[in-house]
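CO-FOLDING WORKSHEET

Operator: S.A.
Ligand of interest: zinc ion
Run index: 173
Mode: holo prediction, single chain
Checklist:
[x] sequence pasted
[x] SMILES validated
[ ] output reviewed
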Amino acid sequence: MVIDVGPLLRGEVKKINIDYMLTAEPVSGVDFESDAHVTGVLTDNAGYMRLGLKAELKYHGECARCLAPVDGVFSLDLERTVAVEGVLSEEELEENGDEYVLIHGSVLDVDQTLCEELMLAFPTKLLCEEDCPGLCPKCGKPRREGSCDCSDKEIDPRLAILATLFDKDKDSD
Ligand SMILES: [Zn+2]
Ligand SMILES: [Zn+2]
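OUTPUT RECEIVED:
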């Protein structure tokens, strides 16, 4: 959203409330059920301007371990100092650029910053639960649903080698 900060710069208001919907960029394997709901406030304290935003994004995807559907709301907090373009030196911007958002003319556009932060912060792997035990590597049954027959036959890896040798002998018959 492009925010007209003119009234703030002129000292007519001390804060501007922000509430809008932001279309997030797609993430592979994840559906965003709606646009991100962005709320926050831009405040001016004797020329020191701060932006505080919260973005909430409903998503639908699948667990990276057990493939169960995962639904949730991802929430991101963003805090930035607001500066008018040209006021900060290039050195300051190079060193602390991540801490600022810039006003161009009398407008502030926060969409790009928000989109970038969302993409950086969004989990690369979704999990149904932090400790999801995943699937049995042999039969593919979700371990959460209880043990499968495979787990009873779990054998010492050294014995497993013997077992394959035995199988080979059988094949040669
Ligand atoms: Zn899972
Ligand atoms: Zn199994």
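REVIEW:
The chain has a mean pLDDT of 87.
Residues 2-121 form one domain.
[x] output reviewed
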